[in-house]
Amino acid sequence: DAGSRALEVVGVTRTFGALVALDGVDLSVGPGERRAVLGANGAGKTTLFNAITGDFPPTRGRISFFGEDVTELPQYDRIRRGLRRTYQHSLLFRGLTVRDNLFLASRGVARRRFSLLRPRGGDFAMAAAERLAGQAHLSRRLDTRVADLSYGEQRQLEIGMALAGAPRLILFDEPAAGLSPGERGNLVALLHGLPEHLGFVIIEHDLDVALKVVDRVTVMHNGRIFKHGTPAEIEADPEVQAIYLGGQ
Ligand code: ATP
Asked: Rounded to an integer, what distance in angstroms lies between the CA atom of residue 114 and that of residue 118?
């Protein structure tokens, strides 16, 4: 029953000219579920995220979000319904502080809600910015400019930005890429600390990080779903190991 699922991807195909980046992908994620998507470079993971968010709509197939077909909806309407994502590249305002980045993210989401009460919208967004900094483990960095943050803190801030408003499902695109072992530990703690009702899908090349933070794992290969399983099943699967490590 699609109505009881947070995300339902059915038969999604995406081609770029002659290249079939996604080939009939099905993926179903329950409310509050945490799911990893693994696969070698070029397996189609980011293209799947792009189809779900509407960055690059699918060539074929349907996508439902909490029971509603969003395949044709503009990105903004998906965001309004509680879908969020992070990117492999940064979308932060480097010259602004952590507080101001989070303020802008919150105001962007709150604008409609407070269109008749504009002054309150500003107060609301400022309070929200401080709450988000806490969730991103950046409370002590509120007045630091993004350019002066460490790389790991910048990635944390990107997660904080995705938490603005009332997210119901977040897509994290390789949040551990480029992080030191210590920063990876912080990331795992941050993800564990997210509200329990909040589901996420995480693309991650670092198996250690991915398997620590999810309930289920989906492995992609050449634009198709290769396998679903629990972290323990996937970790023990020799076929998965061969394909996954083959792409490293
Ligand atoms: P990585 O782990 O390297 O990020 P991925 O699993 O996310 O890989 P995708 O980025 O989804 O893989 O790419 C899947 C295939 O689609 C690749 O062959 C890629 O070159 C191709 N592709 C993705 N986006 C585009 C685009 N906008 N135009 C043309 N080809 C694209």
From this structure: 6
Which class for 41: exposed (0-12), middle (13-18), buried (19 or more C-beta within 10 A)? Answer: exposed
* Alpha helix ranges (H) inside 29-96: 45-53, 75-80
Cβ–ligand 1 distance for 45 under 6 Å, the answer: yes
Alpha helices in the chain (DSSP H): 45-53, 75-80, 98-110, 118-135, 151-162, 181-192, 207-213, 231-236, 238-246
Side-chain half-sphere CA neighbours of 60 within 13 A: 10
Choose which residue among 12, 13, 16 to substitute to test ligand 1 binding: the one with the highest number of ligand atoms within 8 A of its C-beta: 16
Which residues contact residue 103 at a Cβ distance below 8 angstroms, ignoring those fewer than 6 apart?
Answer: 125, 126, 128, 129
Confidence class for position 247, pLDDT limits 50, 70, 90:
very low
State if residue 219 touches ligand 1 by the CB under 6 angstroms criterion. Answer: no
Long-range contacts of 144-149 (CB under 8 A, 24+ apart): 144/97, 144/98, 145/94, 145/95, 145/96, 145/97, 146/92, 146/93, 146/94, 146/95, 146/96, 146/97, 146/98, 146/101, 147/94, 147/95, 149/98
Ligand 1 centroid distance, CA of 46 (Å): 7
Convert the pLDDT of each residue in 208-221 to its tens digit. Answer: 899 999 999 999 99
**Whether the CB of 21 sits within 6 Å of ligand 1:** yes
